[in-house]
Amino acid sequence: xxxxxxxxxxxxxxxxxxxxxxxxxxxxxxxxxxxxxxxxxxxxxxxxxxxxxxxxxxxxxxxxxxxxxxxxxxxxxxxxxxxxxxxxxxxxxxxxxxxxxxxxxxxxxxxxxxxxxxxxxxxxxxxxxxxxxxxxxxxxxxxxxxxxxxxxxxxxxxxxxxxxxxxxxxxxxxxxxxxxxxxxxxxxxxxxxxxxxxxxxxxxxxxxxxxxxxxxxxxxxxxxxxxxxxxxxxxxxxxxxxxxxxxxxxxxxxxxxxxxxxxxxxxxxxxxxxxxxxxxxxxxxxxxxxxxxxxxxxxxxxxxxxxxxxxxxxxxxxxxxxxxxxxxxxxxxxxxxxxxxxxxxxxxxxxxxxxxxxxxxxxxxxxxxx
Length: 370
What we know:
This protein is α/β, with parallel strands linked by helices. The chain has one domain: NAD(P)-binding Rossmann-like Domain (Rossmann fold). Helices cover 41% and strands 18% of the residues. Strand 6 (148-150) and strand 7 form a beta hairpin. The radius of gyration is 20 Å and the shape is globular.
């Protein structure tokens, strides 16, 4: 049985990856030490998801392991050696605001942790496919230099610009702009993954995500705008919009559609491949627009305020051009549009936050066929 290692396995993308790979017959080992609770507090803990995966999925094995710990990482990789066929690296410090609080921690997790994993893969399983979840923040604030026009509820790129129809592609430069420290640490990791592909001939793929969404996200104000907004809608917590009058535009991709893209890449991997991946024109919104849609789905109003100051390095308009990936993997397609994503998230948030006892019971009780 082929072995897959998934870092950040209790987070949004990691847990979705684990579920899918187990369904495909792989022996999956997850690495996650719940650092998200250190970054954002107990409400952001992914421990609940680790419990669900452990109780419900076989063969899945959870390892509370810090990816920066070279000895422990190499011990795990050495245990399986060449049987490791796939590594999906989803662990990260994910917030550009938080990175400024502890730059050394941010860089050590995002950049050094990635280097530790790459070197362990090169030593123990060089033929494995290595997939890295990067971010559109590697482009810094350069997207804000596009010719952007203000509408009633959103910003849009001038229709005459090449990016207007399909979004931003991989030709946008990644330097000469303000990134936030988070953007820099992820850019370092992004380049390392590419370099291990080019220099050592490893099968590496970089996926530069926009907003990643789904019901398994432990969203907080500093990270995960859609899940946190849904949580505010369900529980009545006031929501704060940072800058741009709430007209900033984001594309949103369901974690299941993202993992499907990983699977296509794994079955036919490239070397040092780089893809922008997100909801594209298929699934996108401004914050003001998505507030209206969530209110419609949840059946209640969201109390929100708009702050004057935008976050450092934040984008005014981002839509991913996914045509490069679609050209390389024409069998891949979206299953979820924006309404489908939000409907699923609202249902999950209601169960988690409004009926916590039922939610806890679902974590502890395995299905009959487990």
